[in-house]
Amino acid sequence: MAKIFLVLSLIASLAAGYFAWQTIQKTQEVQKNLTKTQNTLKDTQTQLSKTKDQLKDTQDQLTATKTQLDAKIAENQTLQTKIDEQTKTIADTQAQLTQAQTDLKAAQDELAALKPAKAGDVKSAIQQKIDDLTAQLAEKDTLLKAAQAKADEAEQRATAMAEKESKRQALLNKPGIEGQVLAVNQGWNFAVISIGDKQGSMANAEVLVKRGDTLIAKMKVTTVEPSTSIADIETETLAKGQRVMPGDRVIFTGQSIKAQ
C-alpha cells in the first residue's frame, strides 16, 4: 500500500513538473512574441515618424514652389503694367507732338500771310510763338523717345521671360529624359527622383524604373519641385520579386497617367 502511495506521489510530482515546464515554455514564448511585437511597433513608429518628416519637407517644398510661382506671376503683371503705362505715355506724347506740329504750321502760315506793312509790327511776337512751339516740339520728341525706350526695355524683358518659359514648356515630359531614384518609402509606395521642373518633369507623367536592362516598375509623378520630383510607385507593375531601390534609373515615357 505504501508503494502505491509512493508511486502515485511520484506520478503527481512528475505531472506537476511537466505542467510547470510547459507553463514556463509558454511564458517564455509569450514574452518572446511580446518583445518581437514591441520591436515591430517601435520600427513602425520610427518609419511613421520618418514619413511624417518627409511629408512635412514635401509640404514645405510645395509652399516654397507656390511662393516662387506667385512671385513670377506678380513680376509678369508688373512688367505688363509698365508696358501699358509706357504705351499710354507714348500715345499721349505723340498726340501732344502732333498738336504742337499743327500749331507751329498755323503760326508759320499766319506769319507768311501777313502783309509787309504789318509784318514789322507782329513779326517779333509770332516769331517768339514759333520759337516756343519749336522748343515744345523738341521737348515732346525727347519725352517720346524716352517713353519708347522704356517700353522697348519692358517689352524685351517680357519677351525674354516668355522665351524662357517656352523653352521650359518644350522640355516638359519629353520622352527619354533620364534620372535616378534618390530615395524610396516602401511603406507608402513613393520615391523621390532626381528630375524636377527645370529638367522637364511634370505632374502625372509616366516614368519607367529600370535596373540595368530590367524593367522594375512604372511610376506616376505626383509632386514637382525645381530639381526633384515625388512619384507614386504603380505597385501592380512591379516585376515579380523586385522593388524600387535608390540608384535605379528612371526614364520619362512622354505619356501622362490620368489621375484616379
Bulk shape:
rod-shaped
End-to-end CA span: 84 Å
Order of helices and strands: HHEEEEEE
The number of helices is 2
**Biggest β-sheet: strands ordered side by side in the sheet:** 1-2-5-4-3-6
Radius of gyration from CA coordinates = 42 Å
The share of residues in extended strands comes to 15-25%
How does this model look, in words?
- The chain is of the alpha+beta class and 260 residues long.
- It has two domains: 105 residues; 79 residues, Rod shape-determining protein MreC, domain 1 (Thrombin, subunit H, Beta Barrel).
- 65% of the residues lie in helices and 17% in strands.
- It is built from two helices and six strands, in the order H-H-E-E-E-E-E-E.
- Strands 1-2-5-4-3-6 form a six-stranded antiparallel β-barrel.
- A hairpin with a 4-residue loop joins strand 1 and strand 2.
- Helix 1 runs antiparallel to helix 2.
- It starts with a helix and ends with a strand.
- 13% of the residues are buried.
- The model has no long low-confidence stretch (mean pLDDT 76).
Provide a short characterization of the protein structure.
The protein has 260 residues and is an alpha+beta fold. The protein has 2 helices and 6 strands; from the N terminus they run ααββββββ.
Considering the chains and any ligands shown, give keywords for the structure.
alpha+beta, Thrombin, subunit H, 260 residues, single chain, 2 helices, 6 strands, rod-shaped, 2 domains
List the helices and strands and how they pair.
Blueprint lengths: L1 H112 L2 H56 L6 E8 L4 E4 L11 E7 L2 E11 L4 E6 L14 E8 L4
Helix pairs in contact: 1-2
